[in-house]
Specification:
Elements: H1 2-18, H2 23-35, H3 41-56, H4 63-76, H5 79-91, H6 97-113, H7 116-133, H8 138-148, H9 159-167, H10 173-179, H11 181-202, H12 213-239, H13 244-262, H14 267-300, H15 303-314, H16 318-333, H17 338-355, H18 360-374, H19 382-391, H20 395-418, H21 421-429
Length: 437
């Protein structure tokens, strides 16, 4: 029964996606059809409706629309330019200075907005034209922008990690947020190392701009209010001053106040931002709801146990099993967006990862990291396409230069997989040992 249900679900889902049916509808239909093989069809419809409702009736879920709204306000609020200037102040004298500025700014802005696409769009639009005037190749700048933009999906606050928390059975959001720091920073720094040696090969020098103490102070003071958002939101969540949901509301209020102070948003802009945030929220919430049906069917027919038995049949070595899971997730990430992939595959692989010695927090970082790589790989990498569009170049011209970055990014993934202390170190320091058992 398990094999039949699993095969039916996979075939129907793939067929519907190939036909161009929206992912949320495809998940719902394939889950109901597969589940009907184990239950009466009418009973499956009733169960599906109940699971959809219960899947979205979670208080933590309210954090997602507020973080989306905060990110959209920041995209329009003049914050990106201030962070770019601060990043340039930090790494401007290093060879390939604009590439490193882009990398640092992506890590900071992505962490604040929680969106890799927003980071790639904002920083590519601001830094790219300036770098091109300074003699930098637009393809070189596009590559570094694309390679480092996903770091914001790992460095908190991250809607992807909130989604994982929900589908994994309530893994601590605060612990997940803290666990994302080191892997996200390692991703960004690894790309900066590649960018440095590439800059040496291409002959790019450091920034010739003279930075006086007065200018450095002004740049730092301008960026400080934006950077404080991270400290206020994440610090408040970790300290227990407020929940992740309340932290998201704080982020909205804080970013709105900043934008008003900077005078970078009009009432007309706010109306559009609210509409865009509501539309994006609707998509994500619907995905979470229908994916709850799939998660229930997967659990009901014991698909994780069957997959675990299959992997154990291939090898009993935990290193090999985790490698197979990584390879599969890397492949899936090239075709599925991050959120639906998290919703579909977490219930399948989380029990296996736990058997291999990873905690839910550690596996949350591994699966998120894998799927973040998919955002910068063809055929459907959304950050890849945004980065190319912003730089006014083509995918064909950036794929080959991206290869060394892929190698470094995957190397960091292997470190996070086989040395999970990389992810758990900060949560343990903060007193979240119980979530890492």
């Amino acid at each position: 029964m398990t094999a039949t249900v699993g095969l039916t679900m996979a075939l129907v889902l793939i067929a519907l996606l190939l036909l161009g049916v929206p992912i949320c509808i495809s998940i719902a239909i394939s889950s109901v059809i597969a589940g009907a093989q184990a239950l009466d069809f009418n009973m499956m419809l009733q169960t599906g409706a109940q699971r959809t409702f219960s899947g979205i009736s979670v208080f933590t879920l309210i954090a997602i629309p507020f973080f989306i709204l905060a990110g959209n306000i920041m995209n329009q609020g003049g914050i990106a330019l201030r962070l770019m200037n601060f990043a340039r102040l930090l790494v401007g004298k290093v060879p390939g200075s604009f590439a490193h500025t882009n990398s640092m700014a992506n890590m900071m802005f992505g962490a604040i907005s929680g969106s890799g696409v927003a980071a790639a769009s904002a920083m590519g639009s601001i830094i790219g034209p300036i770098a091109e005037k300074e003699g930098y190749s637009k393809n070189y700048m596009a590559v570094i922008n694309i390679a480092t933009a996903p770091t914001g999906l790992l460095i908190p606050p991250s809607n992807v990690l909130i989604t994982y928390s929900l589908v994994s059975g309530g893994t601590s959001v605060a612990a997940l947020f803290l666990a994302g720091y080191i892997p996200g920073i390692m991703w960004g720094l690894g790309c900066m190392v590649v960018g440095y040696f590439t800059a040496l090969r291409l002959g790019y020098k450091g920034d010739s701009q003279k930075i006086t103490l007065a200018l450095a102070t002004k740049i730092t003071v301008d960026a400080l209010p934006s950077l404080l958002l991270i400290l206020i939101v994440i610090g408040g969540i970790v300290a227990g001053a407020f929940t992740a949901t309340e932290g998201a509301v704080v982020a909205v209020v804080y970013s709105l106040i900043l934008s008003i102070i900077y005078r970078s948003i009009t009432w007309k802009d706010l109306k559009r931002i609210y509409a865009e945030s509501a539309a994006m929220t609707g998509i994500i919430v619907l995905l979470i709801g229908v994916s709850s049906i799939m998660s229930w069917v997967i659990s009901f027919v014991n698909i994780p146990d069957a997959v675990g038995d299959m992997l154990n049949g291939i090898s009993s070595n935990k290193i090999v099993i985790l490698l197979i899971i990584n390879i599969f997730l890397l492949f899936v990430g090239t075709f599925l967006d991050t959120t639906p992939a998290i919703l579909i595959f977490t219930p399948i692989f989380l029990p296996i990862a736990i058997q291999c010695g990873l905690s839910p927090v550690e596996f949350g970082i591994v699966i998120t990291y894998n799927l973040c790589i998919g955002t910068i790989t063809p055929p459907v990498g959304n950050i890849l396409f945004v980065g190319v569009k912003v730089a006014k170049t083509s995918i064909e011209k950036v794929i080959k230069p991206l290869l060394p970055y892929y190698l470094v990014i995957i190397a960091v993934l292997m470190i996070c997989t086989y040395f999970p202390a990389v992810s758990s170190f900060i949560p343990e320091l903060a007193g979240y040992e119980a979530t890492l058992k």
